[in-house]
Amino acid sequence: MKIVVLVKQVPDSGEERTLRADDKTVDRDAATKRMNELDEHAIEEALKLAEANGGEVTLLTMGPGDATDTIRKALSMGPDKAVHVSDDALHGSCAIATSKVLAAALGKLEWDLVLCGAESTDGGVQALPHMLAERLGVGAVTGARKVTVEGATVTVERQTDEGYEVLQTEGPAIVSVWDTINEPRYPSFKLIMAAKKKPVESFALADLGVSADEVGLANATSQVLEFAPKPPRQAGVKITDEGEGGAKLVEYLASEKFV
Amino acid sequence: MDFRESEERQALREAVAALGAKYGVPYMREKTRAGEKTHELWAEAGQLGYLGVNIPTEHGGGGGGIGDLAAVCEELGAAGCPLLLMVVSPAICGSIISRYGTDDQRKRWLPPIADGSYTMVFAITEPDAGSNAHLIATTGRRDGSDWVLRGQKVFISGVDEAQSVLVVARTEDARTGKLKPALYVVPTDAPGVTYQQIEMEIASPEKQFQLFFDDVRLPADALVGDEDAGLLQLFAGLNPERIMAAAFALGIARLALDKAVDYAKTRTVFKQPIGAHQAIAHPLAQCKIELEQAKLMTQKAAWVYDSGDDMAAGEAANMAKYAAGEAAVRIVDQAVQTHGGNGLTAEYGVGGLLAAVRATRIAPVSREMILNFVAMHTLGLPKSY
Predict the structure, then answer these.
(1) What's chain B's average pLDDT?
(2) pLDDT score of A82 more than 70
């Protein structure tokens, strides 16, 4: 069983993140970069499936040159190899263009299953698996908290606000996962040492047959017109108890529809 | 010259820090209070190869050096869950057996030491031979092909959670004169071995013991390496011990400084965070500088040891242990002071570090003996004792 895991380097969501003043794209230079948190769960699930069924796990990432840090970190969890799509023309690409590029890269790889995080912590679009499925003519089952593969049949428990739905599709398929699916492993020292020696294949746009005028900021289907930092936290409401503090608290909570 | 650690070591630190974050201070506190051991953390760190990073790959280890093992030790300490027995099992015993053990001894002991499934502790100090190791009196006597061991040890860490102990003794025919150490691997359940816990003021899952050998019969292959390899063999273990003790101190110091800085940023008195006052900020800045100095010396010492220069490693490892112990004691003290009364509450978990960090100035070699070493061997001053 051949599994490709989509991995994305994102600005650390635990820190203050900003957009660039000039082109209003994510300011990657100002950020601490790390692997998208949910991708670690996708890798873990891929490794488990490969361990149970035999097979290999390939990482696929689209990102700038320094995304190699994330690739090495991801490889140290145990995948066999990685593919890095990098091209200056990709800067500022929208989700639709990204799906075009990743679909072209997936067209060059052999796979039975593509796994990815349910969303990235920077974009948060959640649409990429469906876009890829559309372009590749395969099924997409998304938002999984559990994945089972039997033969060509892929069954997932799709997490919803109320509970879960059971979805099934025939492979090859694309599956996105939430963090409820597993506990990602810590990289062992042996795998850390081995990560540097694992093959990482690089693709530029030309290698994928995608033209520069189909991608990038200038050709994006969505545009950031303006942005502002989030307003500072407002001071809370203080209620001084002068004998009827309790009633005032309830009044406030009711006005905010908490009770 | 490059002061950056290798990508692999940085990745190792990151991975160990993540594991440490899963356990952390609450885990250590719970284990200490319940009188339990850190078996879960030890086992998981072992399975991930973190405990055996310095053991050769052909014997189940990671093929790295003491610098890597020290990084593991420091990161777990900074996360609030230091594993003291790393200093003895993989660092001292692992190093000595890797370098001086026979092939059979390596095959037998290194793989389980590396994966943490076997713990070997280390016994050198005696009631009458602490700083003066020349007075070691525990003696191995030949009896046919066997050895018979007799003597006693004190301040031995973790005997109750170890399968065996690497004992520094001397051979009988060398009872007088210069120290001629002989190293024996003694199972902790061997007939004639008894041990007794020493009640300490340090709150830790790892306990200290007195250890007695009452004519303990050992097979010929209990003797590690060569009975004539002497001091070289011993220092192959003692230099890593000092480097690991430095890393252990650095871990505690980082934990304390992180807590103090966090507190100074958030605790508000006189309408601003206390960290805005230079009386709070400057000592913490000094702590940070001293921490970095000590860490640099520790990294250098590990690098010298890993490069194979045992003579130079002795001086560097001593200096690292001194620097880290001094910095750590000062940093924990300043962290307590920064917290005010909260510094001595159980909730903030700073005061509890005082006794543990104080030990890093004493063990495994006291500050005074390090100063003697540097005065004599580095500066060429006359010997005072």
Answers:
(1) 95
(2) yes
Is the pLDDT at A44 greater than 60? The verdict is: yes
For B341-362, write each residue's pLDDT tens digit: 999 999 999 999 999 999 999 9
* A195 contacts in chain B (CB < 8 Å): 11
Task: State ipTM.
Answer: 0.91
- Whether residue A177 contacts residue A41, with contact meaning beta carbons closer than 8 Å, is answered with yes
Given a contact cutoff of 8 angstroms between Cβ atoms, the answer to whether A164 and A158 are in contact is yes
| Domain final residue pick, B195, B224, B253 | B224
Cβ separation B11–A188 shorter than 8 A: no
Half-sphere exposure of A206 (CA within 13 A, CB side): 1
**Chain A: closest CA distance from residue B46 (Å):** 9
Last residue of a domain, one of B63, B90, B118: B118
Number of domains in chain B: 3
**Residue B66 backbone dihedrals phi, psi, to 5 degrees:** -65, -30
DSSP 8-state code for residue B299: H
Q: Strand order of the sheet with strand A164-170?
A: A164-170, A153-159, A139-150, A173-177, A113-117, A2-6, A56-62, A81-85, A200-203
Q: Are residues B220 and B245 in the same domain?
A: no
| Second CATH level (architecture) for the domain A2-219 | 3-Layer(aba) Sandwich (3.40)
Domain carrying residue B305: 231-378
